[in-house]
Amino acid sequence: QNTLIGKVTAITDGDTFKLLTKDSTLIRVRVANIDCPERKQPFSKSAKQFTSNAIFNKQVTLKVIKKDRYGRSIANVIYDGKNLSEELLKAGLAWHFVKYSKDKTLQSLEDQAKQKKLGLWMDPNAIAPWKWRSSKKKKKKG
Q1: Among residues 72, 86, 87, 110, which one is catalytic?
Q2: Whether residue 39 lies in the annotated active site
Q3: Is the separation of the CB atoms in 8 and 58 below 8 Å?
């Protein structure tokens, strides 16, 4: 794992942001192991606001896992001694991305938020972003 430290300069959405490193490199970051609601989904603004409040304009540490197909660094994001993936799940503003993660801690945080009906779990029929994205693709084709 590659460790990077930098300042968060822009929040794209709940799970994506831009980081400026000490050597002035701008990196697009995708928060690891979770998926926040997409722009037009319920709670997308709340997730973006949560991430903004947590890390915008702050120095964070990235534990980079790999790059995704869009060139973003997929990373665990550490700020104020907290893990952003865990905090978003605790707040009910993200899904544990089980397709890419087998982390039992993350899954139990999601389960707890669900039981408490926090954030997006207020809606018993909340649609996971990956299902939402694939339904949008199908509509475009059809």
Answers
A1: 72
A2: no
A3: yes
C-alpha distance from residue 7 to each of 31, 32, 33, 67 (Å)? 15, 18, 21, 19
| Catalytic residue, candidates 28, 38, 86, 87 | 38
Q: Look up the pTM and report it.
A: 0.94
Task: Identify residue 139 by its one-letter amino acid code.
Answer: K
Establish whether 28 is a catalytic residue: no
- Catalytic member of 30, 86, 87, 110: 30
Active site residue 87: no
Residue 23 near residue 1 (C-beta atoms within 8 A) = no
Per-residue pLDDT in tens (0 to 9) along the chain, 142 residues: 699 999 999 999 999 999 999 999 999 999 999 999 999 999 999 999 999 999 999 999 999 999 999 999 999 999 999 999 999 999 999 999 998 898 999 999 999 999 999 999 999 889 999 999 888 777 665 5
